[in-house]
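Figure 2 data, in text form.
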Amino acid sequence: MRVLLMNVPDAHVGKTTDDWDIEASDIGVFPPMGILYLAGAVRARGRHEVRLIDCILDRLSPARVAEMAQAWRPDVVGLTVYTPNLYDALILTRRLRQALPDAAIVWGGPHTMLFPEESMAQSEVDYLITGEAEETFPDFLDALEDGKPLDAIPGVWMRKDGRVVNTGEPGYVKDIDRLPFPAYDLVDFKRYFSAIGTGLPVGTICSSRGCPFHCTFCCKPYSTYRSRSVENILAEMESYHAQGIREFFFFDDLFNASAKRVKTIAQAILDKGWKDVVWSFRGRVDAVDEEMLVLVKKSGCRQILFGVEDASDEGLKAINKKITTEQVFRAMRLCRKVGILTSTNWIIGFPHHRTRQDVERLIDNAVAIDSDFAQFNICIIYHGTAIFDLAKQKKLLDPDIWRKHARNPIPNFVEPIWEEYLSRRELSELLKKCYRRFYFRPLPILRKALRVRRLSEFMLFAKGALTLLGIKGYKRKKHHEGQGAQ
């Protein structure tokens, strides 16, 4: 069968403010890892022809995508759906249904795990494949082509005898070493980039899945942590290296589950003898030490992205982050000592941010910590999080706000935030202040300018500065339901 997979447009994603709008391309364009893994798994089965359309990379409208799909005439169309881009997913699905009346339209992704019944309420959707689908989706395709029942395939939702039924728990891959590598050849992968990278094409790698931590603001599908073997990770890096990729980003929620794991990977990179490789990862501040940092720097590690979120021990305890401010300062000092760049993620508008002064103190500490880059967000009250449960108890929001949106999505859905003490407008103004206070300081600007070694880096630096100077609004594109790195 012909299988067409799609990364959904982001023209009408959810937002937290009305007056500040940074386009997704201003912070980078990242490969759609979920459908790239899925495409690799389908192709490895050897029975089906696969193509992929990244609507975000090419800024494609639903009408244009429908034309492209109609020209190829796929038998199955699969879309990865996130709650923030639900409206775009539905509009695209309706266009595809008109263009391909006989094709099976399948939704997957985090949204379908949270809201499967609401997803199936959309008449244009034929099936859901919930959970990790690298094993179940190829099984689904085989059964569909052979005309066999789908009952034995986990995580499938479908219509039978006029009613919606499902086959049980979402799909789950216990041994992620078994998975084929992402099918990067199906996209123009050299066009993906990060605004805090070097400007070179980036190979994005997920070396583990799951997160065992339970931050109050984060909605994650799996808590079980699973790691790929070092041999498997290096084999994927080697496949990209052979195609000219020299920069790598480990996109795991928790890359440094232990310092030992990171050192083993760094030593394996050194053993490869690659002299021109640079790499970065997302990690926690409490799992770094100087010995590890010296080794990863030697192996080409350029930058570490830390999820800090709040700036006081009391605040970190309130969100169940399981770190301390001393650990944050220590990690920054060690990284600067060995010459590794740092980026920190921060969130304002937590329930314990009761006054403007509380947020001002967060900004003061973010400046004092002095990472090389920083990203700030307003806390979104996601369905299924501890903060969402607390907001329901305090009657601060409609408990069905997300379900109502799932049933009848609207463009640019205004996502719920904690407005018990600070209004949406106040938090929006404070968000602008966070960025301007952090970035418009002489020393960081000088450090950044002195680090520039390539024209591509200079262009990213200049674009970022112009974006902040010309801020009119803010819209961030999420790649999962949670916020921030660990």
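Caption note: The two ends are 40 Å apart (CA to CA).
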